[in-house]
Amino acid sequence: MSGPRRFLFVLPDAGGNVPPTVAVARRLIRRGHQVRVLGHASLRACFEAVGCAFAPFRLAPDSDTSSPESDLIKDWEVRNNPLASFARVRDRLSFGPALQFAHDVLDELHEHPADALAVDVMLPGAALGAEKAGLPTAVLVHTIYLFPTEGVPPIGLGLRPATGPLGRARDRALSAASLRLMTTGLPSLNRARAALSLPPLHGVFDQLLGVDRVLVLTSRRFDFTGPSLLPSVRYVGPQVDEDDGATWDRPWSESERDPLVLVSLSSTFQDQGGTITAAIDALGAMAVRGLVTLGPALDPAAFSVPANVVVRPFVPHAAVLGEARAVVTHGGHGTVMKALAQGV
Questions:
Q1: Which domains does the chain have, with CATH numbers?
Q2: In a designed cystine with 235, which of 148, 220, 288, 314 is the match (CB 3.0 to 4.6 A)?
Q3: CB hemisphere CA count around 231 (13 angstroms)
Q4: What are the backbone angles phi and psi of residue 297, rounded to the nearest 5°?
Q5: 343 Cβ neighbours under 8 A, 6+ residues apart
């Protein structure tokens, strides 16, 4: 594309997918393009703050991950049951409401035409709407590559790719089981396609992988990749906010030299209060300065804090990671990438 273009971004409120999408949208706007965002109403402020126009979903189920009452998935309720956790994502977000997401996209395009779409990897229904509209589309994968890949074990198990014949057999068996589980979402997606007079798909990932580009927002060197990827797949590197001038209200004097430890768990509610309490207690027994960020989901007043620890709802990572000596995190891709970039 040459010259200014109109982009429609479509995404849910799912925590870690939001900051990299904001970063991409901001860069497009700085290059002179128009960006409109279709998403859960809770995302309005963060996208409007960088210059995007915003519209909420009208038909798709709403979600606000900053509160346990308004979170759509509530995965912490079934955190010890991976099958139940997957079923909630399948039925409540990715596949069950696929037709509603598709209609929201089509309605938005009718009111506000776009030249191209960027669709979150968690919303095959939005990709379906884009297909029906016949517009160029990219799927944004906001973390490592999520789709089944030859030679790579399924995500979520913490396994490294195997090197021996037994390990490779293990990976093939686990990948087959994972695919069978994911395929349970295909009937819902094909019903949505039939409602839009589109032919059925044979593979559960065909809707997302059939777009013009699949943009993986991480470094290929950070990820495990198989011997081959689809030609449409591009690793474009971590997308983080350019916030070099970020500051925060440091409670310590410049003369204090104890190492700074940042505790930064999910910005969404994941019933993480117990973990944060344990981290605070551990920091209180160490010769360190502790900074604990909670996000909007938890109340700082709910925690008993020792003298060497401060608790904040939010502190820009760019303001503290250059000084931090260690980071305690739940493994969110954004926090890990920012910490590694600062050598922490």
A1: 6-235 (3.40.50.2000), 260-341 (3.40.50.2000)
A2: 220
A3: 1
A4: -85, -20
A5: none
Return the half-sphere exposure (C-beta side, CA atoms, 13 A cut-off) of residue 41. Answer: 9
Nearest to 9 by CA among 124, 136, 116, 93: 116
Q: Token pair of 211, please?
A: 């777009």
- Per-residue pLDDT tens, the chain, 344 aa: give them: 568 999 999 999 999 999 999 999 999 999 999 999 999 999 999 999 999 999 999 999 999 998 889 999 898 888 888 778 888 999 999 999 999 999 999 999 999 999 999 999 999 999 999 999 999 999 999 999 999 888 888 887 788 888 889 888 888 888 888 888 889 999 999 999 999 999 999 999 999 999 999 999 999 999 988 778 899 999 999 998 766 567 888 888 888 889 999 999 878 888 888 999 999 999 999 999 999 999 888 888 899 999 999 999 888 888 898 899 999 998 889 999 999 988 98
Does an H or E element contain 213, and which?
strand 213-216
At 14, list the tokens: 């799912």
The reported pTM is 0.92
**Residue 343: helix, strand or coil by DSSP?**
coil
Find tokens 């969404």 and name the residue: 268
Residue 298's nearest CA partner among 330, 264, 332, 326 is 264
Contacts of 298 (CB under 8 A, 6+ apart): 269, 272, 273, 276
